[in-house]
């Protein structure tokens, strides 16, 4: 059975026409997703498939994290539609990064989290990064140091500080994500942080903080944890 095309729907249910007439802000997330899907399949319209995606993943954040394989488990979404959705969310992340401007001031845990949130949102394994800063705490660049398994990562001071020395960085902030969503530091996170603080002291490159990115929950009002704010830089 061929898919139901958007142009076959009643005019008031055609998201493309509604966008042209009323603007994108007037459309629901499901309607915007339907425009990307273009056509449905197996007796379902693109809007019906989009509504199923929204109901399943609950939030656009969760949908953006979905792998190509997960998306293709839905009837009506094949490789082409899955790639289209993935590309759209990737463009959104790139645009968010561009809007932050060049060389932002990253002098607080909140600003660090804001700068890297979109980049880290869809990672399925831990990614350990070093945010390299100049003396004014402005961004030089973000360096990917290592990546690991779902909640395990191995790092060595040599890899962390090699890029900082090459960039002539005055300071750095350690950042990694917890794919589980819980940003609470593990014992391994704490030990690694203290080792890197000591290495930085020897090299005269200050480790300002270690930020762990996760997801916001009802219990935790923030989607990140700062090891400095938690007191682990005082020991």
Question: Can you tell me about this structure?
Answer:
With 235 residues, the chain is an alpha+beta fold. It has two domains: 6-97, DNA polymerase, domain 1, CATH 1.10.150.20; 103-226, 3-Layer(aba) Sandwich (Cytidine Deaminase, domain 2), CATH 3.40.140. It contains nine helices and five strands; from the N terminus they run H-H-H-H-H-H-H-E-E-H-E-H-E-E. Helix 6 runs antiparallel to helix 7 (109-120). The longest helix is centred in the middle third of the chain and has 21 residues, at 79-99. It starts with 14 loop residues before the first helix and ends in a 9-residue tail after the last strand.
Supply the key terms.
alpha+beta, DNA polymerase, domain 1, Cytidine Deaminase, domain 2, 2 domains, 9 helices, elongated
Number of domains: 2
Q: What fraction of residues sit in β-strands?
A: 5-15%
**What is the count of β-strands?**
5
Q: Cα distance, first to last residue? A: 66 Å
CATH topology of the largest domain: Cytidine Deaminase, domain 2
Fourth-level CATH superfamily of the largest domain: Cytidine Deaminase, domain 2
Summarize model confidence as the mean pLDDT.
86
């Amino acid at each position: 059975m061929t898919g139901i095309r958007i142009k076959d729907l009643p005019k008031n249910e055609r998201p493309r026409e509604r966008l042209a007439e009323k603007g994108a802000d007037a459309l629901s997330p499901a309607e915007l997703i339907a425009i990307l899907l273009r056509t449905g399949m197996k007796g379902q319209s693109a809007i019906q498939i989009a509504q199923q995606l929204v109901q399943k993943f609950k939030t656009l954040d969760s949908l953006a994290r979905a792998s190509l394989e997960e998306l293709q488990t839905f009837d009506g979404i094949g490789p082409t539609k899955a790639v289209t959705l993935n590309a759209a969310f990737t463009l959104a992340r790139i645009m968010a990064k561009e809007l932050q401007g060049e060389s932002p001031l990253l002098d607080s845990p909140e600003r660090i989290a804001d700068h890297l949130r979109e980049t880290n949102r869809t990672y399925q394994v831990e990614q350990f990064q070093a945010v390299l800063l100049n003396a004014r705490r402005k961004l030089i660049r973000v360096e990917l140091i290592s990546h690991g398994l779902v909640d395990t990562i191995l790092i060595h001071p040599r890899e962390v500080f090699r890029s900082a020395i090459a960039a002539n960085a005055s300071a750095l902030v350690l950042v990694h994500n917890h794919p589980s969503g819980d940003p609470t530091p593990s014992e391994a996170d704490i030990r690694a942080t203290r080792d890197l603080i000591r290495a930085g002291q020897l090299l005269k490159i200050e480790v300002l903080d270690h930020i762990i990115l996760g997801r916001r929950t009802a219990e935790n009002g923030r989607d990140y944890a700062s090891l400095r704010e938690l007191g682990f830089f005082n020991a």
